[in-house]
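Entry: RNA polymerase sigma-70 factor
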Amino acid sequence: MSLKQLIENCKTNDTKAQSELYKLFSGKLFATCLKYSRNYAEAEDNLQDAFLTIFNKIEQYKHKGSFEGWLKRITVNTALQRYRNEKVFDIVNENNIEDEQVEIDESAVSIDYLLKIIQELPDRYRLVFNLYVLDGYSHKEIAGLLNINVGTSKSNLARARQILIQTIEAYKARPQSQTL
């Protein structure tokens, strides 16, 4: 069955089609949920909530643009919804925040370690870092998604980068027997 037919079947609440769509995209969308969740269990909840929204809104998809992109937007928005009502963001008014580039020596840390320390960032820093660095959103888009101002987005990204650099430097300075 083609993806287009699968989507059309989902629009009629066909549970077999919904199950097939879930099997087809749940892995990629769960990876997205992990980036925007505090832990594995929250990511599972976000994935479930995202698919409920997807199935409730699938009739709105008109086969224009990437279906996977549409799914990902819903998934990101579902995960971010948990944070919108919480006061996880400090409002800052900094007009001259530098958008510094961070160079990471990939031979010094594993990708698993890097993902682990990103996951451990405080919510406000992790969300902005993931949206900007991993998913390519602009600060203006992030501000809109998270109901914060552009300066707050830039400040939180800069702080996330500082924390990551400090954590990596401390990791590299440990004796080899203590590293992961």
